[in-house]
Write a structure and sequence with these properties.
mainly alpha, single chain, globular, 161 residues, 6 helices
Length: 161
């Protein structure tokens, strides 16, 4: 990829990710400010934010990288460019804002590590354990994915419930 083309791709990808992340954060903060039960807010407003994972994957794919470290290496090459630098700083600021929002939400929902650590730790999961498949919204069991001779990566995202 030519240097100018790579720089333009990087800038465009950063702008798109920042725009989606910022809009998502602003929308969920407005919805929370309107009131309603936390469970309702979580069910209707926060679960859709899992789209941020797709936005992050799209960001990595558009840059031709596999992870954040590779993305950082790429933007370091173009950091002398003001537009790249401003967008990288915007992305890092957005990350701080999301972390702050999630911390406040944890406090509101009483989901601190102190509270959660008082629950007994699970050593194993039954194949009957039920989950919601994030992409399809289907109820699935762990057993549906076991015994297929495939490597299984189970990602448990914040439990809002």
């Amino acid at each position: 990829m030519a240097t100018e083309e790579a720089q333009n791709t990087l800038t465009g990808a950063l702008k798109e990710l920042i725009g989606f992340g910022r809009t998502s954060l602003e929308n969920v903060e407005k919805d929370i400010a309107k009131g309603g039960s936390l469970q309702e807010i979580v069910d209707k407003k926060i679960r859709p934010l899992f789209g941020l994972m797709s936005a992050g994957a799209k960001f990595f794919n558009s840059l031709g990288v596999k992870n954040q470290k590779e993305a950082e290496s790429l933007w370091e090459q173009f950091f002398q460019n003001t537009e790249v630098r401003d967008n990288v700083e915007g992305l890092l600021q957005l990350e701080v804002e999301w972390d702050s929002f999630l911390r406040r939400l944890d406090v509101q929902m009483q989901m601190s590590d102190t509270v959660l650590s008082q629950c007994p730790a699970v050593q194993t999961l039954s194949s009957d354990t039920r989950f919601i498949h994030v992409q399809t919204k289907e109820n699935v069991s762990l057993g549906q994915y076991l015994g297929k001779g495939e490597n299984l990566l189970l990602v448990l995202l914040r439990h809002f419930g």
